[in-house]
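#onboarding

Welcome to the new folks! Below is a worked example of what a typical request in this channel looks like: someone posts a single protein sequence, and someone else replies with the predicted structure as tokens. Don't worry about understanding the tokens yet, we'll cover that in week two.

Example request:
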Amino acid sequence: MAKSTFYAKFAKAAAKFTGRPVVFNLAVLTIVIWIVTGPIFKFSDTWQLVINTGTTIVTFLMVFLIQNAQNRDTQAIQIKLDELIRATKGAHNALLDLEELEEETLDKFRDRYEKLAAIARTKTILGDDDTDTPEAAD
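Example response:
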């Protein structure tokens, strides 16, 4: 196994931490405190700047953490799906790396499988089973 980089470890831990209810509650509490202090600071420009700056910085950083977590999750799912395809007798190994193909090629594959789905739905309407493994239509 490859050794995780500092960023990978940090991003994973930060995403896990920030996704907890207590962190959401802390963010809500921060907003409530800011609102309550509005009259104290006479709703000044500085008072508004504090929340605007704070939320902008947090949002900016969270975009990268969320993208990192989403990339990791997507890669893990793709690997798991690839393993299922590889290990399933009769599965089409040409589907292993679909995420790497161009949009036009993906559309062709999608059309083929949509045809299979339509045939299966028709079979169920007629009372037949749709649990076979037909070849993907061209």
